[in-house]
Amino acid sequence: LQESESENKLDGETASDSESKSEFGGSAPVPTSDDTPEVLNRALSNLSSRWKNWWVRGILTLAMITFFFIIIYLGPLVLMTIVMCVQIKCFHEIITIGYNVYHSYDLPWFRTLSWYFLLCVNYFFYGETVTDYFFTLVQREEPLRILSKYHRFISFALYLTGFCMFVLSLVKKHYRLQFYMFGWTHVTLLIVVTQSHLIIHNLFEGMIWFIVPISCVICNDIMAYMFGFFFGRTPLIKLSPKKTWEGFIGGFFATVLFGLLLSYIMSGYRCFTCPVEFNNDTNSFTVDCEPSELFQLQEYNIPLVLQSVVGWKTLRMYPFQIHSIALSTFASLIGPFGGFFASGFKRAFKIKDFANTIPGHGGIMDRFDCQYLMATFVNVYIASFIRGPNPSKLIQQFLTLRPDQQLHIFNTLKAHLVDKGMLGSLEEA
Q1: What does the DSSP assignment read for 135-147?
Q2: Which of 89, 257, 397, 414 is deepest in the core (most CB within 10 A)?
Q3: Number of structural domains the chain divides into
Q4: Full-prediction pTM beyond 0.70?
Q5: 269: helix, coil or strand?
Q6: Are the CB atoms for 347 and 11 separated by under 8 Å?
Q7: Per residue in 45-58, is it b (16+ CB within 10 Å) or e — as a string?
Q8: Domain for residue 149, yes or no?
Q9: How far apart are CA 209 and CA 327, in angstroms?
Q10: Where is region (Disordered) located (predicted)?
Q11: Residue 125 lies in a domain
């Protein structure tokens, strides 16, 4: 009896969990297993399970990194499409867990409504993004202009339709369960769709704001695993018994160093640092601009305490590298809590992984649990410390106004510049 109680405590199950399981009917989902390719199974058959898992994870990690490089090469629009596909897969994995738990009640319209709400939320967010970043293209096409003008009303009407469908689907004796699932769907939408929308916003600010944060999370995940595998002795958190303090600390220092090096390399290329914009002349999306001060080498004085150690008085680096320290620090210290949150979720439902899509790694959601938390931080960081007024967007909006409105703004701006004494100096020049 004591062993059973301790096992239940280890798995995070309490009396209330048992009652909920009884109320919902049926047992918890069976833990998923990794579908390791037969070729790898035969090649690694002589190894212990520990080293076999190490090699499987390593080979598949290299394959995923290679795929990541390929989609980066294909450009921002392909990256946006991949983010959309990842979002749909993550949503599918979480909703499938809910369906497996509650399927015995045969709830009407549950899957249909879940995917309908996903469609509605994506229509709202992607419509906002297109209108914000590609305003000129939207205003030029009549159908897009109409959809843009009434976008929020259309989005609200679509959501109301789904809301009414849910109310009509309520079945006697299962009201509470259906409202549980309604909440399940909306929390999933909040976690998955909102965060993927922020990832796309970061991407359009410049690919460097997309690649560096994601790469820092990947680096931290790999290095924490490596340090933990070879040196790990001290458990970090009960939610993830394999996580160790040695891996956590080693991953932090490795990630900060990696972030500095990657930022230095990428800051020298316009294709990474320039925002994505629509070119009216060529009718295409372009990534070309004059680099901002963030991506121009600056000379910094090294503190006197460190001058005697490193032997330098000054250091040339990109200002973005300083910001990369903040990004990599968050990826190392706070980002893993997204993984811990996912671990708690999986333990609550007695599953090992969200799915078995990637051998040795679990599902797509198992790989992106930390990325979504990172996306929110990057978006907030850009809005708080980086982004300022965008002159090109203001001009685009100005050109869509009526001639009398444009003339009024012109006269107002002219009077303001004259009062400031700037217009006269410009005319003299």
Answers
A1: HHHHHHSHHHHHH
A2: 89
A3: 2
A4: yes
A5: coil
A6: yes
A7: eeeeeeebbbebbe
A8: no
A9: 10
A10: 1-37
A11: no
Q: What is the pLDDT of residues 80-136, one digit of tens each?
A: 888 889 899 989 988 888 877 766 556 778 888 999 999 999 999 988 887 777 777
| CA separation, residue 34 to residues 43, 165, 222, 348, 355 (Å) | 16, 37, 19, 20, 8
Q: Cα dist. 41→33, 34, 37, 53, 167 in Å?
A: 14, 12, 6, 10, 50
Structure tokens at 295: 């991506």
Domain, as residue range, for 47: 37-74
- Neighbouring residues of 186: CB distance < 8 A, sequence distance ≥ 6: 117
Angle at 141 between CA 139 and CA 142, to 5 degrees: 95
Residue 134 lies in a domain: no
DSSP code at position 282: T
Computed over its alpha carbons, how large is the radius of gyration of the chain? 26
Specify the amino acid at residue 188: T
Examine residue 366 and state whether it is found in any structural domain, yes or no. Answer: yes
Q: How far apart are the first and last CA of the chain?
A: 90
Which amino acid does the sequence have at 17?
Answer: D
Q: Which residues contact 295 (CB under 8 A, 6 or more apart)?
A: 208, 267, 268, 273, 318, 319, 320
